[in-house]
Design a protein that fits this description.
This protein is 70% helix and 0% strand. Helix 2 packs across helix 11, helix 8 runs antiparallel to helix 10 and helix 14 packs antiparallel against helix 16.
Amino acid sequence: MVQKPSFHLIEGSIMKKRNINIDVLKCIAVVFVISVHFFLHTNYYGRSFGFKSIFYSSFIWIIFMTCVPLFLMVTGYLMKDKTYSKSYFLKLLPVIGTYILTASVYTLFNYKALNIEYLEKLVANIVTFSHYAWYVNMYIGLYLLIPLLNVGYKSLNNHRSQALVILILIVLTVLPPSFSLLNNNQKNIILQHLVPDYWKGIWPVTFYFLGIFLASLNKKWDIKMVILSIIIVDVLSIVGIAGVSENSLGVEFSVLPVLLLSSLIYYLVLHLRIDIKKIWLQKIIYFISKNTLSIYLLSVIGDNYWYPKFIEKWGDFSNILPKFPLIVFLLSLQSLFITFLLTSVLKYVQIIFNNPKIKGHYIG
Protein backbone atom coordinates (compact mmCIF):
# COMPACT_ATOMS: atom_id res chain seq x y z
CA MET A 1 0.00 0.00 0.00
CA VAL A 2 3.07 2.47 0.66
CA GLN A 3 6.27 2.63 -1.37
CA LYS A 4 9.36 1.75 0.63
CA PRO A 5 12.11 4.29 -0.20
CA SER A 6 14.95 1.75 -0.12
CA PHE A 7 13.61 -0.44 -2.93
CA HIS A 8 14.11 0.48 -6.58
CA LEU A 9 13.76 -1.09 -10.02
CA ILE A 10 17.00 -2.76 -11.06
CA GLU A 11 17.79 -3.62 -14.65
CA GLY A 12 20.11 -6.16 -16.26
CA SER A 13 22.12 -8.71 -14.33
CA ILE A 14 21.63 -6.90 -11.01
CA MET A 15 17.91 -7.69 -11.28
CA LYS A 16 18.68 -11.31 -10.43
CA LYS A 17 19.88 -10.26 -6.96
CA ARG A 18 16.54 -8.73 -6.16
CA ASN A 19 14.26 -10.65 -3.81
CA ILE A 20 11.24 -11.17 -6.05
CA ASN A 21 9.34 -12.60 -3.07
CA ILE A 22 9.22 -9.15 -1.46
CA ASP A 23 7.85 -7.65 -4.69
CA VAL A 24 5.20 -10.37 -4.85
CA LEU A 25 4.28 -9.72 -1.21
CA LYS A 26 3.77 -6.03 -1.97
CA CYS A 27 1.67 -6.84 -5.02
CA ILE A 28 -0.49 -9.19 -2.95
CA ALA A 29 -0.85 -6.59 -0.21
CA VAL A 30 -2.01 -3.80 -2.53
CA VAL A 31 -4.60 -6.09 -4.17
CA PHE A 32 -5.76 -7.09 -0.69
CA VAL A 33 -6.19 -3.38 0.17
CA ILE A 34 -8.44 -2.83 -2.84
CA SER A 35 -10.32 -6.02 -1.90
CA VAL A 36 -10.90 -4.76 1.66
CA HIS A 37 -12.33 -1.56 0.20
CA PHE A 38 -14.88 -3.70 -1.68
CA PHE A 39 -16.26 -4.80 1.69
CA LEU A 40 -16.08 -1.23 3.00
CA HIS A 41 -18.13 0.25 0.16
CA THR A 42 -20.74 -2.52 -0.24
CA ASN A 43 -22.16 -2.37 3.30
CA TYR A 44 -20.51 -5.53 4.64
CA TYR A 45 -19.51 -4.12 8.02
CA GLY A 46 -21.91 -4.36 10.94
CA ARG A 47 -24.35 -6.71 9.23
CA SER A 48 -25.72 -9.74 11.03
CA PHE A 49 -24.03 -13.13 10.72
CA GLY A 50 -27.58 -14.39 10.16
CA PHE A 51 -27.07 -13.55 6.49
CA LYS A 52 -25.32 -16.50 4.81
CA SER A 53 -23.54 -14.12 2.45
CA ILE A 54 -21.98 -12.34 5.45
CA PHE A 55 -20.83 -15.55 7.11
CA TYR A 56 -19.27 -17.07 4.00
CA SER A 57 -17.76 -13.83 2.73
CA SER A 58 -16.04 -13.34 6.10
CA PHE A 59 -13.69 -16.23 5.28
CA ILE A 60 -12.15 -14.27 2.42
CA TRP A 61 -12.56 -10.87 4.08
CA ILE A 62 -10.31 -11.78 7.00
CA ILE A 63 -7.60 -12.92 4.56
CA PHE A 64 -7.72 -9.52 2.85
CA MET A 65 -7.45 -7.80 6.24
CA THR A 66 -3.80 -8.87 6.32
CA CYS A 67 -3.02 -6.16 3.75
CA VAL A 68 -1.71 -3.47 6.10
CA PRO A 69 0.13 -5.93 8.40
CA LEU A 70 1.85 -7.37 5.31
CA PHE A 71 3.06 -3.92 4.26
CA LEU A 72 4.38 -3.27 7.78
CA MET A 73 6.19 -6.60 7.93
CA VAL A 74 7.74 -5.96 4.52
CA THR A 75 8.85 -2.59 5.87
CA GLY A 76 10.59 -4.43 8.71
CA TYR A 77 12.33 -6.68 6.19
CA LEU A 78 13.53 -3.77 4.05
CA MET A 79 14.35 -1.20 6.74
CA LYS A 80 15.86 -3.29 9.54
CA ASP A 81 19.38 -1.92 9.00
CA LYS A 82 18.51 1.77 8.64
CA THR A 83 20.19 4.34 10.88
CA TYR A 84 19.72 8.08 11.35
CA SER A 85 21.53 10.21 8.78
CA LYS A 86 20.88 13.19 6.57
CA SER A 87 20.18 10.91 3.60
CA TYR A 88 17.72 8.87 5.67
CA PHE A 89 15.57 11.93 6.39
CA LEU A 90 15.83 13.08 2.76
CA LYS A 91 14.52 9.71 1.56
CA LEU A 92 11.24 10.46 3.28
CA LEU A 93 10.65 13.34 0.85
CA PRO A 94 9.72 11.09 -2.13
CA VAL A 95 7.02 9.46 0.01
CA ILE A 96 5.60 12.88 0.95
CA GLY A 97 5.95 14.07 -2.65
CA THR A 98 4.08 11.02 -3.96
CA TYR A 99 1.36 11.59 -1.40
CA ILE A 100 0.92 15.27 -2.36
CA LEU A 101 0.94 14.43 -6.08
CA THR A 102 -1.65 11.66 -5.81
CA ALA A 103 -3.78 13.87 -3.54
CA SER A 104 -3.76 16.56 -6.23
CA VAL A 105 -4.95 13.97 -8.77
CA TYR A 106 -7.81 12.44 -6.81
CA THR A 107 -8.92 15.88 -5.58
CA LEU A 108 -9.03 17.04 -9.21
CA PHE A 109 -11.28 14.09 -10.07
CA ASN A 110 -13.71 15.35 -7.45
CA TYR A 111 -13.76 19.00 -8.56
CA LYS A 112 -12.87 18.68 -12.25
CA ALA A 113 -11.56 22.24 -12.28
CA LEU A 114 -8.45 24.10 -11.17
CA ASN A 115 -9.68 26.97 -9.04
CA ILE A 116 -9.51 28.41 -5.54
CA GLU A 117 -12.05 25.91 -4.23
CA TYR A 118 -9.93 23.06 -5.59
CA LEU A 119 -6.78 24.42 -3.93
CA GLU A 120 -8.58 24.82 -0.61
CA LYS A 121 -9.89 21.27 -0.77
CA LEU A 122 -6.49 19.93 -1.82
CA VAL A 123 -4.79 21.53 1.18
CA ALA A 124 -7.55 20.18 3.44
CA ASN A 125 -7.17 16.66 2.00
CA ILE A 126 -3.40 16.74 2.42
CA VAL A 127 -3.22 18.03 6.00
CA THR A 128 -6.10 15.85 7.23
CA PHE A 129 -4.79 12.71 5.50
CA SER A 130 -8.20 11.98 4.01
CA HIS A 131 -9.11 9.52 1.25
CA TYR A 132 -7.26 6.43 2.52
CA ALA A 133 -4.21 8.52 3.49
CA TRP A 134 -4.34 7.51 7.15
CA TYR A 135 -1.64 5.00 6.25
CA VAL A 136 0.66 7.82 5.09
CA ASN A 137 0.05 9.59 8.39
CA MET A 138 1.01 6.45 10.30
CA TYR A 139 3.95 5.57 8.04
CA ILE A 140 5.62 8.98 8.38
CA GLY A 141 5.70 8.54 12.15
CA LEU A 142 6.92 4.95 11.87
CA TYR A 143 9.63 5.99 9.40
CA LEU A 144 10.96 8.59 11.84
CA LEU A 145 11.11 5.96 14.58
CA ILE A 146 12.59 3.08 12.55
CA PRO A 147 16.31 3.73 13.29
CA LEU A 148 15.49 3.96 17.00
CA LEU A 149 13.46 0.74 16.80
CA ASN A 150 16.33 -0.96 14.98
CA VAL A 151 18.83 -0.05 17.69
CA GLY A 152 16.55 -1.46 20.36
CA TYR A 153 15.86 -4.65 18.41
CA LYS A 154 19.52 -5.30 17.63
CA SER A 155 20.43 -4.88 21.28
CA LEU A 156 18.49 -8.12 21.81
CA ASN A 157 21.23 -10.40 20.55
CA ASN A 158 19.31 -13.68 20.44
CA HIS A 159 16.01 -14.94 19.07
CA ARG A 160 14.64 -15.79 22.50
CA SER A 161 14.94 -12.20 23.72
CA GLN A 162 13.51 -10.88 20.46
CA ALA A 163 10.59 -13.31 20.66
CA LEU A 164 9.93 -12.21 24.27
CA VAL A 165 9.75 -8.54 23.29
CA ILE A 166 7.42 -9.33 20.40
CA LEU A 167 5.23 -11.41 22.73
CA ILE A 168 5.01 -8.45 25.12
CA LEU A 169 4.02 -6.20 22.23
CA ILE A 170 1.36 -8.70 21.15
CA VAL A 171 -0.06 -8.75 24.67
CA LEU A 172 -0.19 -4.94 24.81
CA THR A 173 -1.31 -4.17 21.24
CA VAL A 174 -3.17 -7.23 19.94
CA LEU A 175 -4.96 -8.81 22.89
CA PRO A 176 -6.98 -5.68 23.90
CA PRO A 177 -8.72 -5.28 20.51
CA SER A 178 -9.07 -9.07 20.32
CA PHE A 179 -10.86 -9.18 23.66
CA SER A 180 -13.11 -6.35 22.48
CA LEU A 181 -14.63 -8.85 20.05
CA LEU A 182 -16.40 -10.28 23.09
CA ASN A 183 -18.28 -7.04 23.77
CA ASN A 184 -21.62 -8.55 22.78
CA ASN A 185 -21.33 -11.25 25.42
CA GLN A 186 -21.76 -9.82 28.91
CA LYS A 187 -20.50 -13.04 30.49
CA ASN A 188 -17.06 -12.30 29.08
CA ILE A 189 -16.95 -8.61 29.99
CA ILE A 190 -14.19 -9.21 32.56
CA LEU A 191 -11.89 -10.55 29.82
CA GLN A 192 -11.96 -7.16 28.12
CA HIS A 193 -10.14 -5.63 31.09
CA LEU A 194 -7.52 -8.29 31.80
CA VAL A 195 -4.88 -6.51 29.70
CA PRO A 196 -4.07 -2.76 29.73
CA ASP A 197 -5.37 -1.26 26.49
CA TYR A 198 -3.49 2.05 26.63
CA TRP A 199 -0.73 0.87 24.25
CA LYS A 200 -2.85 -0.79 21.58
CA GLY A 201 -2.28 2.17 19.24
CA ILE A 202 1.35 1.16 18.63
CA TRP A 203 0.36 -2.05 16.83
CA PRO A 204 2.34 -1.03 13.68
CA VAL A 205 5.53 -1.47 15.75
CA THR A 206 4.45 -5.03 16.57
CA PHE A 207 4.10 -5.93 12.90
CA TYR A 208 7.34 -4.13 12.03
CA PHE A 209 9.27 -6.30 14.48
CA LEU A 210 7.39 -9.40 13.35
CA GLY A 211 8.57 -8.78 9.81
CA ILE A 212 12.19 -8.74 10.97
CA PHE A 213 11.80 -11.72 13.28
CA LEU A 214 10.02 -14.08 10.87
CA ALA A 215 12.50 -13.34 8.09
CA SER A 216 15.41 -14.18 10.38
CA LEU A 217 14.21 -17.61 11.45
CA ASN A 218 16.72 -20.30 10.53
CA LYS A 219 14.31 -23.19 10.95
CA LYS A 220 12.19 -23.60 7.82
CA TRP A 221 8.58 -24.63 8.22
CA ASP A 222 6.96 -27.04 5.79
CA ILE A 223 5.12 -24.98 3.17
CA LYS A 224 2.16 -27.40 3.03
CA MET A 225 1.78 -27.12 6.79
CA VAL A 226 1.84 -23.32 6.55
CA ILE A 227 -0.96 -23.39 3.95
CA LEU A 228 -2.96 -25.82 6.09
CA SER A 229 -2.41 -23.56 9.11
CA ILE A 230 -3.76 -20.56 7.17
CA ILE A 231 -6.93 -22.48 6.34
CA ILE A 232 -7.39 -23.72 9.92
CA VAL A 233 -6.81 -20.27 11.47
CA ASP A 234 -9.21 -18.71 8.94
CA VAL A 235 -12.01 -21.20 9.63
CA LEU A 236 -11.60 -21.17 13.42
CA SER A 237 -11.45 -17.35 13.45
CA ILE A 238 -14.71 -16.82 11.60
CA VAL A 239 -16.56 -19.61 13.40
CA GLY A 240 -15.27 -18.30 16.72
CA ILE A 241 -16.13 -14.68 15.94
CA ALA A 242 -19.62 -15.67 14.80
CA GLY A 243 -19.99 -17.49 18.11
CA VAL A 244 -19.23 -14.45 20.28
CA SER A 245 -20.46 -11.60 18.09
CA GLU A 246 -23.79 -11.04 16.40
CA ASN A 247 -22.43 -8.79 13.66
CA SER A 248 -19.58 -8.82 11.17
CA LEU A 249 -16.40 -7.16 12.37
CA GLY A 250 -15.25 -3.62 11.80
CA VAL A 251 -11.91 -2.62 10.31
CA GLU A 252 -9.45 -3.89 12.92
CA PHE A 253 -5.97 -4.81 11.70
CA SER A 254 -4.51 -5.66 15.09
CA VAL A 255 -6.78 -8.49 16.26
CA LEU A 256 -5.21 -11.88 16.91
CA PRO A 257 -6.72 -13.73 13.90
CA VAL A 258 -5.35 -11.09 11.52
CA LEU A 259 -1.94 -11.21 13.20
CA LEU A 260 -1.75 -15.00 12.87
CA LEU A 261 -2.92 -14.99 9.25
CA SER A 262 -0.64 -12.14 8.18
CA SER A 263 2.35 -13.83 9.84
CA LEU A 264 1.61 -17.11 8.06
CA ILE A 265 1.03 -15.47 4.66
CA TYR A 266 4.19 -13.37 5.04
CA TYR A 267 6.27 -16.41 5.92
CA LEU A 268 4.69 -18.49 3.14
CA VAL A 269 5.34 -16.01 0.32
CA LEU A 270 8.78 -15.10 1.67
CA HIS A 271 9.91 -18.73 1.42
CA LEU A 272 8.22 -19.77 -1.81
CA ARG A 273 10.45 -20.59 -4.75
CA ILE A 274 9.40 -17.91 -7.21
CA ASP A 275 11.09 -17.98 -10.59
CA ILE A 276 9.45 -15.70 -13.15
CA LYS A 277 10.94 -16.26 -16.61
CA LYS A 278 8.85 -13.75 -18.54
CA ILE A 279 10.57 -10.35 -18.58
CA TRP A 280 7.29 -8.51 -19.22
CA LEU A 281 5.74 -10.12 -16.14
CA GLN A 282 8.80 -9.21 -14.07
CA LYS A 283 8.44 -5.59 -15.18
CA ILE A 284 4.76 -5.52 -14.22
CA ILE A 285 5.50 -6.95 -10.78
CA TYR A 286 8.38 -4.52 -10.25
CA PHE A 287 6.26 -1.57 -11.39
CA ILE A 288 3.43 -2.47 -9.01
CA SER A 289 5.89 -3.09 -6.18
CA LYS A 290 7.59 0.26 -6.75
CA ASN A 291 4.30 2.19 -6.93
CA THR A 292 2.13 0.59 -4.26
CA LEU A 293 1.56 3.92 -2.53
CA SER A 294 0.25 5.60 -5.68
CA ILE A 295 -1.90 2.59 -6.65
CA TYR A 296 -3.36 2.48 -3.16
CA LEU A 297 -4.11 6.20 -2.88
CA LEU A 298 -5.44 6.56 -6.43
CA SER A 299 -7.82 3.63 -5.96
CA VAL A 300 -10.12 6.08 -4.20
CA ILE A 301 -11.03 7.52 -7.62
CA GLY A 302 -12.56 4.28 -8.83
CA ASP A 303 -14.07 3.47 -5.45
CA ASN A 304 -15.91 6.80 -5.16
CA TYR A 305 -17.16 6.65 -8.75
CA TRP A 306 -18.12 3.00 -9.24
CA TYR A 307 -19.39 1.67 -5.92
CA PRO A 308 -22.41 4.02 -5.70
CA LYS A 309 -23.35 2.82 -9.20
CA PHE A 310 -22.92 -0.83 -8.20
CA ILE A 311 -25.13 -0.39 -5.15
CA GLU A 312 -27.73 1.50 -7.18
CA LYS A 313 -27.81 -1.25 -9.79
CA TRP A 314 -27.49 -4.40 -7.67
CA GLY A 315 -28.46 -3.19 -4.21
CA ASP A 316 -27.80 -5.70 -1.44
CA PHE A 317 -24.33 -6.93 -0.49
CA SER A 318 -25.31 -10.52 -1.20
CA ASN A 319 -26.16 -9.56 -4.80
CA ILE A 320 -22.87 -7.71 -5.31
CA LEU A 321 -20.66 -10.38 -3.71
CA PRO A 322 -20.68 -12.82 -6.70
CA LYS A 323 -19.22 -10.03 -8.81
CA PHE A 324 -16.41 -9.40 -6.30
CA PRO A 325 -13.52 -10.90 -8.36
CA LEU A 326 -14.40 -8.92 -11.48
CA ILE A 327 -14.97 -5.67 -9.60
CA VAL A 328 -11.68 -5.88 -7.71
CA PHE A 329 -9.79 -6.83 -10.87
CA LEU A 330 -11.18 -3.89 -12.85
CA LEU A 331 -10.69 -1.37 -10.04
CA SER A 332 -7.12 -2.58 -9.52
CA LEU A 333 -6.52 -2.26 -13.25
CA GLN A 334 -7.95 1.27 -13.29
CA SER A 335 -5.78 2.41 -10.39
CA LEU A 336 -2.74 0.78 -12.00
CA PHE A 337 -3.47 2.52 -15.31
CA ILE A 338 -3.83 5.96 -13.68
CA THR A 339 -0.57 5.36 -11.82
CA PHE A 340 1.12 4.38 -15.08
CA LEU A 341 -0.11 7.56 -16.77
CA LEU A 342 1.05 9.68 -13.85
CA THR A 343 4.54 8.15 -13.73
CA SER A 344 4.85 8.42 -17.53
CA VAL A 345 4.04 12.14 -17.42
CA LEU A 346 6.56 12.64 -14.63
CA LYS A 347 9.27 10.82 -16.61
CA TYR A 348 8.48 12.97 -19.66
CA VAL A 349 8.72 16.17 -17.60
CA GLN A 350 12.00 14.96 -16.13
CA ILE A 351 13.41 14.26 -19.60
CA ILE A 352 12.44 17.75 -20.75
CA PHE A 353 13.90 19.33 -17.62
CA ASN A 354 17.18 17.43 -18.04
CA ASN A 355 17.51 18.45 -21.70
CA PRO A 356 20.74 20.53 -21.97
CA LYS A 357 19.03 23.03 -24.29
CA ILE A 358 16.21 23.58 -21.84
CA LYS A 359 18.65 23.92 -18.94
CA GLY A 360 20.78 26.34 -20.97
CA HIS A 361 17.68 28.42 -21.77
CA TYR A 362 16.77 28.83 -18.10
CA ILE A 363 20.36 29.37 -16.97
CA GLY A 364 20.93 31.94 -19.66
